[in-house]
Amino acid sequence: MTVADWALRADGLAFAYAGGAPTFEDISLGVRPREIVALLGGSGCGKSTLLRVLAGLQPPTAGRVQFLGAPLPEPSPRSALVFQQASLLPWLNVTANAGFGLDFARQPKIARAEHAQRVQDAIAAVGLAGSEKRYPAALSGGMAQRVALARALARQPELLFADEPFSALDAITRAEMQTLLVDVVHRWHTAALLVTHDIDEAILVADRIILMGGRPGAIVREWQVDLPRPRLADGEAVSKLRLDILAALQGQRTTASTTTESTI
Ligand SMILES: Nc1ncnc2c1ncn2[C@@H]1O[C@H](COP(=O)(O)OP(=O)(O)OP(=O)(O)O)[C@@H](O)[C@H]1O
Ligand SMILES: [Mg+2]
């Protein structure tokens, strides 16, 4: 594949916070158009830092990032980000929050009618039609995260960056949101890079799983997940993959843990 075949391509990436040891070194990875990639790893291994570098929010100390075949000096308007907290503006209703930023200077100019249509479509896609006039104080955590997802979709991104977007939600809402994410990513024809420390989330959502670990952080292993959807958490193939990932995790840890928890 040439670089133009990737939505996102990173080669030889390294990063160190000022005056600190390297957070990660020599990371090369790619996300194909319409592909959902999960970046999985334990707490503190550098996933969020890597995501910020990949999204153009932070320059790498070495290596390069290319987005849609071009170097990425700053965040691209053709990508969108979703974080663990929905970060809604409390004085704006659902519609205004979902449309927030769409008319910022670096965004492509769009006509007012298209702006309204995009926001309306995005709100409907995340299942919030009818809640347009609500304010953040009247939304549950899951609804707030739906608004954050709608705000990302309204940009019609080529790539959605998501950093543990569901980890603050209860298990049932999280499962709903995982299904929703796969659904909207497919319908919107966008690619997604999902940071998670939840093995089951990675298996249920991703087309490919990249395991990150070590100090400094590096890519430990990668799995192509060709299982049909919807994937059941207790399916045989899912259980086998889950064990394989756990074994890889334990193998790369200096002090092997005996945990069988799916959250690392
Ligand atoms: N702004 C910062 N300045 C200095 N060091 C930082 C900063 N942000 C993160 N770090 C350090 O960089 C390392 C990687 O942090 P990062 O947040 O990328 O990890 P993570 O894998 O996302 O962890 P988690 O799963 O807990 O979110 C950690 O050791 C952290 O303490
Ligand atoms: Mg993080």
Automatic annotation (TrEMBL):
Record CDD domains:
ABC_NrtD_SsuB_transporters
Membrane in keyword set: yes
Q: Which Pfam families does the UniProt record give?
A: ABC_tran
Q: Which UniProt keywords apply?
A: ATP-binding, Cell membrane, Membrane, Nucleotide-binding, Transport
Q: Does the keyword Hydrolase apply?
A: no
The residues covered by the ABC transporter domain are 8-241
Q: What is this protein called?
A: ATP-binding cassette domain-containing protein
Offer an example of a GO molecular function term for this protein: ATP binding
Q: Give the family this protein belongs to, as stated in its UniProt record.
A: Belongs to the ABC transporter superfamily.
- State the species of origin: Duganella alba
